[in-house]
Amino acid sequence: MKDKEKPTDGKFSRRGFLKGTSLGVAAGTMLGSARAEIREQAGLPQARLLKAAAEHKVTFSLNGAKTAATVRTGHTLLETLRDQLEMTGTKLVCDHGTCGACTVLLDGEPVNSCLTLACDADGRAVETVEGLAQDGKLSPIQEAFAKEDALQCGFCTPGMVMSCTALLRANKNPSREETQQALCGNICRCGTYINIFRAVDSAVKAGGK
């Protein structure tokens, strides 16, 4: 059997390829775990442990307040919000721009903060889910989400709420099709879409966003 596992034409064998792939995955997992352990033991956020040579100071409006942060060239807005500014309502889920859980508003437009460089927020306005409530009162769309039971696990909820907020600011009375289109970049793994659509309708009836 061992002779059959050896390549006979100068190419890698299937078994060798699989072994190499497995080793690569294992090494990556171990490296990621090591980084996490170092961060935990040092008590330092990722942004300080993974500094690059090039760092930049950015200033922007965060939920209406002038904010400054020092970021690496490749640092994302999501990392800045969560690791430096403690805006943890913005969720890190896929980290590839496919689920929409990290959606924030940049100059009023919904963006995936995991794909947006922190440097690109310099001089602009950033809104997160923490900034929607005013004087301790939830925004109409937040209240509608609670009223219509438009969430289950909650991981997608902040991003959904921010996309809905942008929609209702631009369109006071969206159709169901317009709501679906506005939320096409936000994935709810629990499948509560119908209640989310009802929440938008409820917010429209309440006359707010």
What does it look like?
By secondary structure, the protein is of the alpha+beta class. It folds into three domains: 2-43; 47-131, Ubiquitin-like (UB roll), CATH 3.10.20; 140-206, [2Fe-2S]-binding domain (DNA polymerase, domain 1, Orthogonal Bundle). Helices cover 42% and strands 13% of the residues. The chain is built from eight helices and five strands; from the N terminus they run H-H-H-E-E-H-E-E-E-H-H-H-H. It has helices at residues 2-5, 14-42, 46-49, 77-84, 140-147, 157-170, 176-182, 193-206, and strands at residues 55-62, 65-72, 103-106, 109-112, 125-127. The protein has a five-stranded mixed β-sheet, sandwiched between helices. Strand 1 (55-62) and strand 2 form a beta hairpin. Helix 5 (140-147) crosses helix 8 (193-206). The longest helix has 29 residues, at 14-42. The chain starts with a helix and ends with a helix.
